[in-house]
């Protein structure tokens, strides 16, 4: 029997594995995929996540495989600035930088650091039942028992559905394409991300390594959305967007719906706890979903320093994390809607331009600061 099982080797499960290892606890991670090959090319690890990776001794390694990003600019179709958020001062304050990186690079580093021997691939959880301990049944026929379970199995979490029996998926009505390509961006975008807002559509890109650019495109859903030609759809955007799209091979593009999880009242039950998207999936508009799963793992680690009783840790964990996570889920949803307006965009852009930089900085600081 294992003492601790983690279901899911996404960024949340892998970070938690690293934290438990630091505490010398025995655990096994069960992952349904046959290899650590995450969906989606690039990801931004913001300063909150990078502070945690620093404590895990991984900061320099992640920085060396990714690209430091000191700010994000929002612009209109013709690249006229709507808002700029520079994080250099906050990066100095928290002694960590935002890093854009290939997801596979990041997840492999996390897996390597905790030891591949602690991860069981090809183990898709089918059924979880509480008898005295938790009984886990996997699709490959393997069965095991354990005392403590962490559900890090993403937005469609079986752990959540079968034990907590809560949570419904909310669809934002937007389709999202993500891709990566070898592309030489103009120098000014070397360490700044750009997001371009049009009418009912958005395009963003960021450099993730010396040669690679990660991009995403969102379009309001309609009956043609799945079949649209991206180059045609973004023809009224600056030519840089078309060049990036046209340089991308089809096999390097994926398509998803934008969804989140309606807040659930409790993330834990006896000897079981959800983390990351399984507990509080958010839309990606603040680039914080994975960062929040990393913060979850970190807070569990901090609580373990004082106390080894998992049930009281789970209760305390939710008390500490709830407010920040709810704030992000709510604001990210709103930003997603405003950024995809189809009418009144000039007014929106005017109002956005009049928001003082200090307000922006305050909001960003609130997100980048760790709670413990
Ligand atoms: C378009 C887009 C862009 C994004 N950009 C960013 C960004 O820049 N920064 C950021 O911080 N976040 C970003 N996010 C959010 C981020 O991807 C998620 O929040 C993050 O991946 C959640 O991590 P997780 O480990 O909780 O869940 P997941 O990444 O979903 O991992 C869950 C793991 O569990 C496994 N699993 C599922 N079911 C089972 C089962 N039954 N048995 C065993 N294993 C199972 C899955 O295979 C998977 O490996 C973005 C999301 C989207 C959609």
Automatic annotation (TrEMBL):
Keywords for the protein's UniProt record, in alphabetical order: Monooxygenase, Oxidoreductase
GO MF terms, alphabetically ordered: FAD binding; monooxygenase activity
KW Oxidoreductase (keyword) present: yes
Gene3D superfamilies: FAD/NAD(P)-binding domain
Pfam families per the UniProt record, alphabetical: FAD_binding_3
InterPro entries assigned: FAD-bd (IPR002938), FAD-dep_Monooxygenase_BioMet (IPR050493), FAD/NAD-bd_sf (IPR036188)
Keyword Cytoplasm: no
Limits of the FAD-binding domain: 3-306
UniProt protein name: Monooxygenase
Organism expressing this protein natively: Chryseobacterium formosense
């Amino acid at each position: 029997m294992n003492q601790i099982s983690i279901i899911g080797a996404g960024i949340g499960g892998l970070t938690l594995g690293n934290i438990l290892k630091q505490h010398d606890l025995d655990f096994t991670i069960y992952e349904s995929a046959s290899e650590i090959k995450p969906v989606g090319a690039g990801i931004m690890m913001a300063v909150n996540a990078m502070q945690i990776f620093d404590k895990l001794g991984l900061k320099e390694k992640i920085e060396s495989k990714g690209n430091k990003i000191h700010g994000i600019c929002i612009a209109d179709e013709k690249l006229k600035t709507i808002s700029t958020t520079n994080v250099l001062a906050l990066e100095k304050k928290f002694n960590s930088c935002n890093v854009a990186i290939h997801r596979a690079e990041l997840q492999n580093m996390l897996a390597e650091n905790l030891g591949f021997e602690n991860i069981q691939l090809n183990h898709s959880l089918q059924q979880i039942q509480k008898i005295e301990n938790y009984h886990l049944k996997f699709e490959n026929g393997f069965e095991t028992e354990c005392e403590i379970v962490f559900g890090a199995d993403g937005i469609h979490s079986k752990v959540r559905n079968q034990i907590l029996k809560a949570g419904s998926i909310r669809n934002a009505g937007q389709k999202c394409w993500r891709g990566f390509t070898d592309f030489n961006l103009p120098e000014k975008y070397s360490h700044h991300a750009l997001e371009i807002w049009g009418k009912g559509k958005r395009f963003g890109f960021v450099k993730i390594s010396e040669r690679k650019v990660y991009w995403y495109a969102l379009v309001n859903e309609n009956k043609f959305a799945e079949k649209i030609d991206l180059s045609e759809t973004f023809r009224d955007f600056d030519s840089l967007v078309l060049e990036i799209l046209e340089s991308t091979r089809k096999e390097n593009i994926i398509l998803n719906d934008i969804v989140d999880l309606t807040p659930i009242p409790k993330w834990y039950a006896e000897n079981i706890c959800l983390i990351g998207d399984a507990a509080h999936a958010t839309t990606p508009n603040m680039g914080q979903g994975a960062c929040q799963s990393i913060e979850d793992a970190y807070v569990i680690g901090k609580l373990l320093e004082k106390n080894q009783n998992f049930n009281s840790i789970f209760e305390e964990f939710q008390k500490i994390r709830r407010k920040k996570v709810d704030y992000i889920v709510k604001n990210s949803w709103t930003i997603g809607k405003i950024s995809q307006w189809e009418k009144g965009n000039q007014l929106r852009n005017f109002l956005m331009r009049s928001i003082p930089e200090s307000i922006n900085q305050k909001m960003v600081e609130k997100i980048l600061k760790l709670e413990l």
